[in-house]
Every structure is written in C-alpha cells, then in structure tokens.
Design a protein that fits this description.
The complex is a heterodimer of chains A (about 200) and B (about 180).
Chain A (H helix, E strand, L loop, with lengths): L2 H7 L2 H9 L3 H23 L2 H17 L10 H26 L6 H6 L2 H8 L2 H8 L2 H11 L5 H8 L3 H29 L5 H7 L2
Helix pairs in contact in A: 2-3, 3-4, 3-5, 4-5, 5-10, 8-11, 9-11, 10-11
Chain B lengths: L1 H10 L6 H57 L8 H11 L9 E4 L2 E4 L3 H29 L3 H15 L2 H13 L2
Antiparallel strand pairs in B: 1-2
The chains are: A mainly alpha (about 200), B mainly alpha (about 180).
Chain lengths: ~200, ~180
Amino acid sequence: MSGDESLRLLTDEELVQRAKRGCTRSFGELAHRYQVPIRHFLQRKYGVHQDAEDLTQETFLRAFKKLWSFREGAEFRPWIFTVAYRVALNVLRRRQWQSLTEGSVPTVQQARYGTGMENEEQRDRLWDRVQSVLTPLQFTVVWLFYVEQMSAREIGVIVRKSEGAVKTILCRARKILLPHLQEFTATFEDREEQPSRQVNNRWAL
Amino acid sequence: MAGLLAAAAQEERPEFSQELHQRILRQVARIGAVGADRTARRLSSRQRWRVRLALAGCAVAVVLAVLAVTSARHGGFPFRVGPKTEQVANRMSGQTENPPEAVIHGNSREIGLFPDRSLAVIVSTPDRTVQQLQTQLTQLESGRWAGLDRDLLIASEMLKNQLPLNLVAQIRTGEQRTP
C-alpha cells in the first residue's frame, strides 16, 4: 500500500492532525477531497469560473495557514466551509468597494448573473432561480443544507448563527422557493423519468 | 424540494481539476517552510511567557519577603489599624459599643441618666485643664533661661544674706522711733 493510498484511509480529522505536525501530503489529501465541493460552492456563489478557482486556492491556502487554530475534536468539513465562506465574504466586500470607487469592476449581481443573454440563459437553471430570489445568506444556508447535506448546527457554525436561526432561515427560504420551483418540477420529471421517481417523492415538503 | 435541488446541483457539479490541485500543493509546500518557522516562533513565544511568569513569581516572592521582614521588625503588621477599622472589627466580632448616654434637661433640673463617674469627669475637666496648662507653663518658664534665672535668684538671696541690710533697717527705724 503506497503512502497516498494509506492517507485515503484516514479520516479528515486524522489528516488534519498529521498536517498540523507538518505533513503537507496529508493536507494535499484534504485538498483532494474537498476541492470539488468548495469550488462548486464558490462557483455558485460567484458564477465566474476563474474566480471560483482562485478563491478555492485562496481558501485552501488560508486553511493551511490557520490549521493551528483547528480545535482537536472539531469536524473538518464545517471548518473548511467556514473558511471558504469567509473568503467569499471578503472578496464580495472588496468587489463592492472597488465597484464603488472605480466603477469599472462588475458589481456582485453582474458577476453572479452576468448580463444580457447570458443572464437569461442562466435564469433558466434551477439554482440560478434560487439564487435570484433568495438573499445571499438564505442561499448559503439552502445550499449547505440541501447540497452538502449539513445539519443546522453545522451551518450555524459556518454562518455564525444559532441552530434555531438557521432553521428559521431555512423555513423562510422554503416558503419563498416553493412557488418558484413549481415550474421546474415538470421539467425535471420530463428530463429524468424513472431514476427521478425517488427524488420527486422527496420533493413533497 | 431536497431531491430537486440536490439533483440540479449535481448536474452542474464541476469536475476535479488536477491543475488546481497541483497549484494548491505547490503553494502549500512553499508556505510549509514558513509555517514551520512560525511554529518555532510560537514555541519561543511560549517560552517567553514562561519567563514572564517566573519573573512575576519572583516579584511576588520579594514583596512577601519585605512584608515579612517589616512585620518582624515592628512586631506586627506594618500597616496601622485605625480606629475605624477597630470599630468595624468589633462590629464584626459582635462587640457593641456603649450606647450614648441620654440627658434630659427640664427647667434647671437635670434628670441625669448617666452615672456619677461621668459627671465627675465632666465637672473636673476645667480644673484638670488649668492644672495641665500651669504645669506646662512652669516647665516652659523653667526651661526658658536654662536655669540661669534660678542661679540668679540664689545668688541674690546669698547677697542679701551677706549684706547688713537688717542693721541699716534697724538704724533707720530707730531714728524714726527716736523723737
């Protein structure tokens, strides 16, 4: 069994402990495991492919620098998403500031949805619709809950809210999303007939 | 809703990027050396804290030693316990002060509820004060001329005894008596 294969058998927390002791290969394994979810999350938050890659890199570098602050016994997945969320917030603020001062940098909404035809095409997609009707916080909570399958407690750690507050945000987001998602249900059923049966059963709230 | 959202997210899920992974690994390897330095610095800072704690402990020990020496020299705690502190201490220990003595004045008659001892003390206070003042004045007077006035007085007495002043006086009185 090679070194990389043995690393794959370890849990996230064990890899973190090894990385804290200076094993960069262990951190590489963590980056391997979480590159796609983090990039997916950031890409959805920003809608710009290249930016999402840079932000993913920034997230992992910051995580590596702050690895010493990772508490023993904590879970790595909420922690790395917290770092990504903070990185995303910082970049958003920076962009907003630049757009205010320079005027040439695209605003957050422009960066997220694009302009013109691109906007129209993107709005046809489900998550674009979700993103357009929810606030950024609601979107983050919904994404982490439904896509990353995180608990309300874990999401609360990431967005710095209580568990109850996260549940309230989720409930409100569901109410907002419900009418908007009705039209997507039929499309979804047409596209995936048999395999989607189980999914469509779960669609009922 | 859960299935719909999850499936839609799965559709647009990005592929794993080997290029991005290599970039991250390169950056991590570059930062790794700096991180090791930082760890070393953190350890040294811990040692600095230990030194600070040791110094603080030494300072406390010196203060305690000074207090112990001072109390040994003065035969007690170096800080004087004031009357208020004593009162508080008495109150805390349950000892109560004597209640104030009540005096009811009616016409020129005094209905005294205080004991005679207190009355005697009050009555004798002016006399005692005058006596003390006289004593102090006498002491001042005696010490004023460093005893020279007393010597002068003795010398004048001696001179008076030596001189035949009585004889002169008798002669003069005899002359007067002589018609």
